Amino acid sequence: MSHPDSRPTHLASDADLRQHIERLSLRLTQIEKLYRSLFEDADTPIIITDHVGAILDVNPRAAQFIGATKDSLLGKNLTSDALPPTLHGLAPILPAAHYTPVLRRPLEMSAAGKEISLDLRVRHVDYAGNPAIQWVIHDQTDQRALDRARDDQLYMIVHDLRNPLSNVVSSLELLRESIRNPNMTPAPLALVNIALRSSRRISLLVESLLDMTKMEAGQFTLATTTARLDTLIERAIDFVRPAADRKHIPLTVDVDPSLPPVLIDVNMIERVLVNLLDNACKFALPGQAVHVSARRVDQEVHVAVRDEGPGIAPEDRLKLFQKFGRGSSALGQTTGTGLGLAFCKMAVVAHGGQIRVESEPGKGSTFTFTLPVE
């Protein structure tokens, strides 16, 4: 004999089950909508294919990256030659993607004459109830270029430090020998001067690197004092004169005698002058002069460093003052680390001034920076 309450209990269980199924169905619909929203709005290119490479879906970012409309891509196979060049690199990976649930590969390719670096992440997914492959494409082109630039910069920094450091070591070794043998040449004072100049060049680069890091982090405070620019210019000239003399480069100075004093961080502005003069001497040919001038223009002082060298290629002028932007001269010479000019811009801007370059291939370059009158 059945229990009198068995029927109502059974009906209640069926009702609960239906409600549970409805809740699950609603939840599933919400999840699908969320996935579709994330898929459509993602900043990263995403492609969905079946396991033989037929394209089932692409998000808007992928269509933009590929350079084609979504409708023109759907149904096409990754192995098709008719696909845009940006997809040609995926076909060789398809067999591994078919058998490997999760896969990550770097991919270097060329499209539209541009080298592209991709970080490709592939995984098996369910798409509309069927097994599929999701291709997530991370464009690493800019990051790889930045990494290469940093590696180049590091090499150039080490190179720029190694030469003066070698001079310091050699001078000290010779100085030690001169103490043991007073009759040897060169004289001890000359060796000390070489070591001092080289040490100061090392200090110049290291201080600039440290100050740039602080300025970028907003942690740098100017140690300002009233100073005369004609004195700073003479000190900067004295610093680069040995290098200029070795290349027979005349250094000329034209400073307005009525130039007013300026409120500056003396150490920083002196390094700006040294960097600009050093660059000018580096690219001037033997016998070509480097000129320094300073004038007051309204409420600013304009300081210009002009050389008679090969000039700067037009496409390089905008990136000269970037921290990792290395340009080249009109004759194809590299411009060193580029950190000197990046420091110059940061230092001048920190003082409320501006810096610019004017150049014409074959006719030299002029770097001009401004400082507010006190």
Structural summary, described in words:
With 374 residues, this protein is α+β, with helices and mostly antiparallel strands. It is built from nine helices and twelve strands. It is elongated and about 105 Å long. The mean pLDDT is 82.
Mean pLDDT: 82
Q: Main beta sheet: strand number and arrangement?
A: 5 strands, antiparallel
User: What radius of gyration results from the CA coordinates?
Assistant: 33 Å
Helix content: 40-55%
What is the H-and-E element order? Answer: HEEHHHEEEHHEHEEHEEHEE
Class from helix and strand fractions = alpha+beta
How far apart lie the N and C ends? 108 Å
Dominant shape: elongated
Spatial order of the strands forming the largest sheet: 2-1-5-4-3
Could you tell me the strand content as a percent range? 15-25%
Number of strands: 12
Task: Summarize this structure as a short list of keywords or feature phrases.
12 strands, alpha+beta, five-stranded antiparallel beta sheet, 374 residues
What is this entry, summarized?
The chain is of the alpha+beta class and 374 residues long. Helix content is 45%, strand content 22%.
